[in-house]
Amino acid sequence: MRRSAAWLYGVLAGAALLVGGFSWYEREHLPEPASPQPLWPRLAAYPLTDEEGRPFALESLRRNVVILAFIYTRCPSVCPRLSGVMQELLSGVEVGAPVAALSISLDPERDTGAVLTTYASVYAVAGRTWRYVRPQSQPYAFLTAREVFGVTATTLPGQAEILHNDAFFLIGCEGQVYGPYASTDLEKARKHLQKLISLCERSSSG
Q1: Residue 60 and which of 8, 67, 112, 130 are 20 to 30 A apart at CA?
Q2: CATH number for the domain that contains residue 111
Q3: What is the pTM for the complete model shown?
Q4: Is the CB of residue 146 less than 8 Å from the CB of residue 153?
Q5: Is the pLDDT of residue 52 over 80?
Q6: Helix, strand or coil for residue 50?
Q7: CA–CA separation, 61 and 130 (whole Å)
Q8: Which of 30-44, 69-83, 131-145, 166-180 is least confident?
Q9: What percent of the chain has pLDDT over 70?
Q10: CB atoms inside a 10 Å sphere around CB 165
């Protein structure tokens, strides 16, 4: 009986070490978060509205790994590349995985709910959550990008185009911010996304 009990304890201890070791491996092969503070409380200080003009509830994204970028629908260059990468990342995960995407407009006056809905239809991935939101004004959008994510956005006198970083971010399910990633970093971001999904699923089941 003692030998059986010792064997059982040994198996349980080994399993615990295996799970702990795997979790360590996942975390060890991720970059350090861009900020030690979780994102959601900081972003909550900058009100956002959804495609229907309602206050956007950040709680709807908690406990998901979130792919996040700043875009605007008239953008001729960087934004289509960023949205295309987000589309590829979402397409590469299983339906039902704890993953969502969030695009924040840098041009909220022109990016009305109807405009965002039309833009969203071009990049939509069936069965995945992808939300498009607007800050209350363009200065506020630029402030949110800079203060929360370190993304620079600006306009030049006499020009309508918004200049901004080629950057997107991955948000762990506990709110850790990873990145920025450029639109050329698809494969690196894909690997990090899968690790964050694994960590998220493990934490929710444990």
Answers
A1: 112
A2: 3.40.30.10
A3: 0.85
A4: yes
A5: yes
A6: coil
A7: 10
A8: 30-44
A9: 85
A10: 17
